[in-house]
Amino acid sequence: MQQSNILRLDDFMLRGARVGAGVVGVGILVTLAWPEGAEISRGLVAAGVALSALVPISMLVLGLALRGREQQAAALLRLMERHVEVSADDLLANSDFTPSSLETAIRDLHSAGLRHIVWDRRSNLLQDGWLRRSRVHIESCASCGTKIAMDVPLHEAASARCPSCDAPLDAREVDDEKQAMMAEISERARPRPAAPRTAWPFSIPLFLLLLVACWPLALVYAVKCWQPTRCAAAEIPSCGTIGGGSMPPAA
Fold first, then answer.
1. How far is CA 223 from the centre of its chain?
2. Which residue ranges in the chain fall short of pLDDT 50?
3. In the chain, what are the helix, strand and coil shares in percent, each to the nearest 5?
4. Residues 63/13, Cβ–Cβ less than 8 Å
5. Calpha distance 157→173 (Å, rounded)
6. pTM of the prediction?
7. Which end of the chain is more exposed for a tag (fewer CB within 10 A), N or C?
């Protein structure tokens, strides 16, 4: 899979760092050529250039941090392309993910419109959103023979019980249905292109104003307020919060 440009802000920061480094380089040349008898001393000009150098350095540091965050989201995307259900405990124990970085990667994939992943806190599983959206229809109870009609979310079907005798419903049938659905999801789940960008999640004029007035505040504003492209409802079942809650049934 060709890695998707999930965050975009890391590219902006790294490009800005390159441009800023070029500007600082020009400033160094100007400082070296500054006349000795000028009204403004060469030392003062050098101090200004040194202070300006903090801008591309800060943008480089933040850009690399965001690039690492994007790589984690891409790694999770590749994993969920191969498996529609993954144990969060195993993933955390055998990877560089932490609970916080895993939540961030899930949120970034949601926001970019690439994949809907649900972290079920009760079972501690990461599940493809399509798996939680699918439902199995049960018509009768194998224990008491009572005719029932139940639409149960597939991820909860294994714990479904008969409303008459409270006996657990046939787990084999449920498991067969779940495995078939997981195979279908794996077959049709592919990386989705990011939704067309209609507006930036944060204000570019405000960012540029802060960059001129107080560049550290501008960088903090960008990191805090930037979000990838919001997912399109037509492509992703839901963009709800991460957690154990079920998604609404399919229409």
1. 14
2. 1-2, 191, 194-200, 229-251
3. 55, 10, 35
4. yes
5. 10
6. 0.58
7. C
